[in-house]
Design goal:
This protein has about 60 residues and is mainly alpha-helical. Helix content is about 85%, strand content about 0%. It has one domain.
């Protein structure tokens, strides 16, 4: 049990040394990542839809 508490104390000490981002920076980064993820998802959806049509026409599907 002493090892666990020692470990948790060390973790806490290390976390106090971390320089955390400001709330505004976190929000900006989150919005930027969300926008990029949405754009990539839309792009992949269009590519998937197009390839699906091409493959169905080549293979004679419905």
């Amino acid at each position: 049990m002493g090892k666990i508490t020692g470990f948790l104390k060390e973790v806490y000490q290390e976390l106090t040394k971390v320089s955390w981002l400001a709330r505004r920076d976190v929000i900006r980064s989150t919005v930027a990542v969300s926008v990029v993820v949405i754009i990539v998802a839309i792009y992949i959806s269009f590519v998937d839809f197009g390839l699906n049509i091409i493959i169905k026409s080549v293979l004679g599907g419905r």
